[in-house]
Specification:
Helix content of chain A: 25-40%
Number of strands of chain A: 5
CATH architecture of chain A: 2-Layer Sandwich
Structural class of chain B: alpha+beta
CATH superfamily of the largest domain in chain B: PPM-type phosphatase domain
Largest interface: A-B, 14 and 14 residues
Strand content of chain B: 15-25%
Number of strands of chain B: 12
Number of helices of chain B: 9
Number of domains of chain B: 2
Shape of chain A: globular
Order of helices and strands of chain B: HHHHEEEHHEEEEEEHEEHHE
Distance between the termini of chain B: 75 Å
CATH superfamily of chain A: Histidine kinase-like ATPase, C-terminal domain
Radius of gyration of chain A: 14 Å
Number of helices of chain A: 4
Distance between the termini of chain A: 23 Å
CATH topology of chain A: Heat Shock Protein 90
Helix content of chain B: 40-55%
Strand order of the largest sheet of chain A: 1-2-3-5-4
Shape of chain B: elongated
Radius of gyration of chain B: 31 Å
Largest sheet of chain A: 5 strands, antiparallel
Strand content of chain A: 25-35%
Oligomer: heterodimer
Order of helices and strands of chain A: EHHEEHHEE
Strand order of the largest sheet of chain B: 1-12-9-6-7
CATH topology of the largest domain in chain B: Phosphatase 2c, domain 1
CATH architecture of the largest domain in chain B: 4-Layer Sandwich
Chain lengths: 133, 337
């Protein structure tokens, strides 16, 4: 049975808790310090997005396995306003919060796999995986 | 990848050793060269910090805990820089892609200009059009019919770059679709105005001058739509005259009529049609005077028309320090002596 950590995001405390949980699991899985920092930054950005745009939501962190590979999976989900133009937010140089932060393209770059699903007025779910090399 | 990582590791270790031993500028220079190589290999800032730390820890095994831990903080900060660096790379790639698309578009635009030469025993034509950027908002056109009559035009879209260029291609297709009016400048402008008014944005305008020369009667008919006036040179009096025309720019109003003018052309006389990129050429002392253009033309008046336009362009280019602010188009049509 896989271990899944679940953190509620409704304040900046939640962001820190999610970072902590992510770094811990990344270390346990065997990621080096650079990749630990990358995974943590990705979690941080996803959690901040929830906090800033949806007010509250969840971050799930778990070990991922696929044909002999091991990695870490992050799922960020909220019931916020959703994203109107996903193509636009995935463009480099476009960040609604004023160009600060890595934005979703940054998260995609930090991780190996990235999936986004969003419905207007229903919410957004983003799932990203980083594989151990 | 592992192999290069290993050699990077060794290389950096040697460099750091040398520097710690000698504190020499030489070692620092090597580090500068090394950074270029790292960037070529797409090594991110955070990987660089981590490389430094692992090399350093191996060299000095008994590092104080605070030193080791402090690198966690640096690493965290560098992740953000690394992302900015990657974003920069991807934007640079996208810029390259846009540039190559623009090059293709510029070639397509070039293909809209007439290619054939005019074959008329007593006519000498010279034309040069140079865009300020990759694409031009200027357009020129010339054509010869079965009777040897020549139609010519210079047009200028208010605006520059891609939007202006797209607008320009429409003028070309519109002109192709009304061949029967090639020799009637005023009627042609009226038709074009209707097309332009219907098809372009209300904040875009086109100015144009159209002329037609009949070598049998030696008459030159012309009409203009808000365009920069050209010149008529009379050999007999050795003087330039402004080719002033009355008529609204294309695309402003649905129904516009244009006034047609005519000139008798003596041997050695010529017409100069141009875009405002020629006359609004800006130098250190402000805009140049229209008279300066005619002076330049006069200086080369004994040369073939093509040579004249080439030389005028070169002079203006030099006066502007080789930085064109606006698209440049200059056309000269002369009745040979």
């Amino acid at each position: 049975m896989q271990v899944q950590t679940h953190v509620d995001i409704h304040s900046e405390w939640g962001i820190v808790a999610a970072r902590q949980a992510g770094r811990k699991l990344a270390r346990e899985i065997g990621f080096g310090s650079v990749d630990q920092a990358r995974v943590t930054t990705a979690i941080s950005e996803l959690a901040r997005n929830i906090y800033l745009y949806a007010n509250k939501g969840q971050i799930y962190i778990e070990e991922a396995t696929s044909s002999g590979k091991r990695g870490i999976r992050i799922i960020a989900t909220d019931e916020g306003p959703g994203i109107k133009d996903i193509r636009k937010v995935m463009e480099d140089g476009y960040t609604t919060s004023g160009g600060l932060g890595a934005g979703l393209p940054g998260v995609k770059r930090l991780m190996d796999e990235f999936k986004i699903d969003s419905e207007l007025n229903e919410g957004t779910t983003i799932s990203a995986i980083k594989w151990l090399r | 990848m592992e192999k290069t990582k290993l050699s990077m590791y060794q290389l950096y270790k040697d460099m750091l050793n040398t520097y710690l031993d000698s504190k020499s500028e030489h070692a620092l220079y090597a580090a500068q060269q090394f950074s270029k190589e790292m960037m070529e290999k797409d090594m991110s800032p955070e990987e660089m910090v981590s490389l430094h730390m692992s090399v350093f820890q191996e060299m000095v095994p008994e590092l104080p805990e605070e030193v080791v831990d402090s690198f966690d903080l640096l690493l965290e900060v560098m992740i953000g820089y690394g992302l900015a660096y990657r974003e920069h790379q991807s934007l640079r790639d996208r810029q390259r892609q846009l540039e190559s698309e623009l090059n293709v578009a510029a070639r397509m635009q070039q293909a809209l200009l007439p290619e054939d030469e005019i074959h008329a025993p007593d006519v000498d034509l010279g034309v040069l059009s140079v865009p300020a950027g990759k694409m031009s908002g200027d357009y020129y056109h010339y054509i010869q019919d079965d009777h040897g009559c020549i139609g010519l035009a210079v047009a200028d879209v208010i605006g520059k770059g891609v939007p202006a260029a797209m607008c320009m291609s429409m003028i070309k297709y519109a002109m192709d679709s009304i061949p029967e009016q090639r020799l009637q400048p005023a009627a042609l402008l009226e038709s074009l105005n209707r097309v332009v008014e219907r098809n372009i944005d209300s904040n875009m305008f086109i100015t144009m001058v159209y002329g037609s020369y009949d070598p049998r009667s030696h008459r030159f008919y012309y009409a203009g739509a808000g365009h920069e006036p050209g010149f008529y040179y009379s050999k007999k009096t050795d003087s330039f005259e402004e080719l002033t025309t009355k008529g609204l720019v294309l695309g402003l109003s649905q129904k516009v009529s244009y006034k047609e003018y005519v000139k008798n052309v003596e041997p050695g006389d010529f017409f100069v049609l141009l875009s405002d990129g020629v006359t609004e050429c800006r130098t250190e002392d402000g805009f140049i005077e229209r008279e300066q253009i005619t002076d330049m033309i006069r200086k080369h008046i004994d040369l073939p028309a093509q040579e004249i336009v080439n030389r005028v362009y070169r002079e203006l280019e030099k006066m502007q320090d080789f930085e064109l602010k606006d698209d440049f188009t200059l056309l000269i049509l002369r009745r040979k002596v």
